[in-house]
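Minutes, project huddle
Topic: does the predicted pose make sense with glycyl-adenosine-5'-phosphate bound?
PN asked that the exact inputs be recorded in the minutes so nobody has to dig through chat later. Recorded below.
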Amino acid sequence: MSKQVPEKVDMEKIVSLCRRRGFIFPSSEIYGGLSSCWDYGPLGVELKQNVKQAWWRAVVQERDDMVGLDAGILMHPQVWKASGHLEGFTDPLVECKSCHLRWRVDDLKDNKCPSCGGEVTEPRLFNLMFKTFMGPIEEQASVVYLRPETAQGIFVNFQNVLNTTRKRLPFGIAQMGKAFRNEITTGNFIFRSREFEQMEIEFFVTPETDQEWFNYWTTERLNWYVNLGIKRENLRLRQHTKGELAHYARECYDIDYLFPMGWAELEGIANRGDFDLVQHSSFSGKSLDYFDEETKEHIIPHIIEPSAGVDRSVLAFLCDAYDEEIAEGETRALLHLHPSLAPIKVAVLPLSRRERLVQAANQIYADLRQCWMVQYDDAQSIGRRYRRQDEIGTPFCVTVDFQSLEDEQVTIRERDTMNQIRIPISELKTTLQAKLEGEDLFVLPPGGSIWKGGESG
Ligand code: GAP
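Predicted holo structure (tokens), as shared on screen:
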């Protein structure tokens, strides 16, 4: 095997793979697509779900200082006044006087239109929130917004969660869900879209411990990506300059990933101080403070916010996993996805379509499906089928051959090394479980052996 891909994969390869294999399609494609909106296909939905599950597991399930929430996308319009989004969630926008394309000011080249070089209008502030109307009458009084971040649903539920869970500081509330931004400049596939998903944590702490927790979460979140297989050298921390800080933030670090188009934000970790609870308390007239049993004082907790994008994480995992190498004289494209993220965990491949073999393979397929997402593939040569699974990141293929009918054994082939072992069907589930959890392929179950039969089976 020899390496073929350059260190940095180009975006077109990823877009083409996603389109061809059913990870991601342009939205409403039969009508020509909808700018910067995307649909996740059969494999994409699994990958995205796995990313969200891995996040939820790490930040909610495995911690006793975190609880989950699923707030609505539509919220009381006052929320956006209090949060500062109505006033401050804007980009300066200009229009080209010749070609009438619109641009963000920071996209201009020498103050000229980047498309035709024409003169542009004076900038005006453009609010990025999508507006709609609640109820049948389209009037100012019924305006509501599609949330531009999931965070606000957490702040307005702070007292509800506190009262119902009896959590004490420090503790956090985690939420995943859709957010919408009427972005002026979009592009780079799913990197910046108008409808996307976020995975956000609001971690409430005593004011004097905010720096400590800020540092903690920065490290914790960086490690999450590394533990799920992203190469450390493709991640960096970047501190926001004073001018870049969002209106609510005292300090912010971005976790940047080296995407094909260059370094760009994957997740932001912000110290929001007491901004949000003070604002919502003042606009709602409801107290959002916290009674500290030890000091017998009422305090406003400070908030550390690790805010990640689901779609950007999906893109980063895909880019980092993509690989090409020469194997058996031809190019093999593969995704080295972490087993917990791989859309399909196991493929069951009968060596031929002969009835007795199909029957045995189908039985195995039905059995494994009880545990994981499994694919059954009997079309074309076994080599082709292995390549198809490599390209979508399936960690293991189980091959059922004629000998299986005699000795009740099957081969397991590993995606990354292409090594194979042969094991009793009775050991298949537990063996696959162990391998998916990271056990070395050559640790064999009773009755197992290393298979020297080669790729073509
Ligand atoms: N509550 C804080 C907040 O929303 P942000 O930096 O604006 O902060 C957090 O967004 C994350 O959401 C980003 O790091 C990115 O991963 C994702 N994100 C933001 N805008 C996006 C867009 N237009 N398309 C895809 N993901 C986006």
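Observations noted during the meeting:
- The chain has a mean pLDDT of 94.
- The pocket of glycyl-adenosine-5'-phosphate is lined by residues 149, 151, 181, 183, 192-193, 196, 198, 200, 265-268, 305, 307-309, 311-312 (CB under 6 Å).
No decisions taken; revisit at the next huddle.
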